[in-house]
């Protein structure tokens, strides 16, 4: 038995899908201790949008660490934090005419979500939050209460209350007008719906199965929130920082959420960091009312400031959209002849959905044997999720797509052979 099997908790998961010991990583590739190379279409679950060890981020980080600069500072003022805030304001907020205060809630996405939920409740004096079917917002109790996955919710061990799910876009296959149920409950004093404090939504549900909300659906949700005095939270933890093309995933919808949650790739280097962005009039926190020991990770501020250099113009956004179209075409070419398989996604978050969930897992295993890291998503693990680094070059992208296509075709061929053999018996 390995030290991991002997000592580490049974809760570990990704290492079961990829049972090797990884040693090195650079760009879009990882190597195990035996020197085998893998293309990474997982990207740290979205924490590595700029790939592994990008030299433009590594250099300022090493310089900072080698100069005995402040590493840990809670919410004390430091040069690294000031430089990040100034850069974030100049590169991200001002060009988009977004007027947000920046809160550092702690090191992870669920910290950002928890702070957002606490804040809307504090502002409104109400307890209930509206979430959506198949949502995923984190693994702490507040975030789990607005998460849809029954297995993850079950891990809480207590009732998860003060949250009400509504149908996400196309959850009812387009046969019901958008928000007709939601708005009827809000307007009917006999509906039994607790008066909500706010609404939390992902523009693309990553863990929920690469479910993509239409722009008009997001605009309709924003308008509904304004009509009913509900605060709108966009969870951009995985889809922000350019995953769908623009820096924020909601930009193309033309909406301005009241609160935005960012994490994962905001540090740019895979270092822990999270932001909760809130409109200035919502900044009603008392000092220390929401805090955390590791909300002042200065190495993260350093790499986050450097990563914003990717966003001084629209070249990366255009590149992500172009590469996303390449992936869409390549996937459609391979799945069109295969019954029960479809594609979905936006930008560089793409999925291949199988009517039989076990086939998605089989594709990921096949891809791993061929040197490509893929994971599944969706409530039954029915979607193969492709999430390469945003900066992946065209050759690596083409190689990964070839392996993905070969893996899908191999699984489909085996399934056809098994079905044919069974019919002959």
Descriptive overview:
With 425 residues, this protein is an alpha/beta fold. It folds into two domains: 3-54 and 314-424, Aspartate Aminotransferase, domain 1, CATH 3.90.1150; 59-311, Type I PLP-dependent aspartate aminotransferase-like (Major domain) (Aspartate Aminotransferase, domain 2), CATH 3.40.640. The protein contains 14 helices and 17 strands. The protein has helices spanning 3-7, 14-17, 43-46, 55-66, 79-93, 109-124, 141-145, 150-154, 180-187, 215-227, 298-307, 315-335, 357-369, 394-424; strands spanning 22-26, 29-32, 37-40, 101-103, 128-132, 163-166, 196-201, 204-205, 211-212, 231-235, 259-262, 275-278, 341-346, 349-354, 372-373, 375-377, 383-386. The strands form four sheets. The chain has a seven-stranded mixed sheet with strand order 4-12-11-10-7-5-6, sandwiched between helices. A hairpin with a 4-residue loop joins strand 2 and strand 3. Helix 5 packs parallel to helix 11 and helix 12 (315-335) runs parallel beside helix 14. The protein starts with a helix and ends with a helix. The model has no long low-confidence stretch (mean pLDDT 96).
Strand count, sense and barrel status of the largest sheet are: 7 strands, mixed
Q: Which oligomerization state do the chains in this entry correspond to?
A: single chain
Query: Which CATH class of the largest domain?
Result: Alpha Beta
Unreliable stretches: none
Architecture of the largest domain, CATH level 2? 3-Layer(aba) Sandwich
CATH topology of the largest domain: Aspartate Aminotransferase, domain 2
Q: What would the principal axes of the Cα set say about the shape?
A: globular
Strand order of the largest sheet: 4-12-11-10-7-5-6
Q: What's the number of structural domains?
A: 2
How large a portion of the residues is in β-strands, by DSSP E? 15-25%
* CATH homologous superfamily (4th level) name of the largest domain: Type I PLP-dependent aspartate aminotransferase-like (Major domain)
Distance between the termini: 42 Å
Radius of gyration over alpha carbons? Answer: 22 Å
Helix content: 25-40%
Q: Got a strand count? A: 17
Distinct helical segment count:
14
Mean pLDDT: 96
Briefly note the structural class of the backbone: alpha/beta
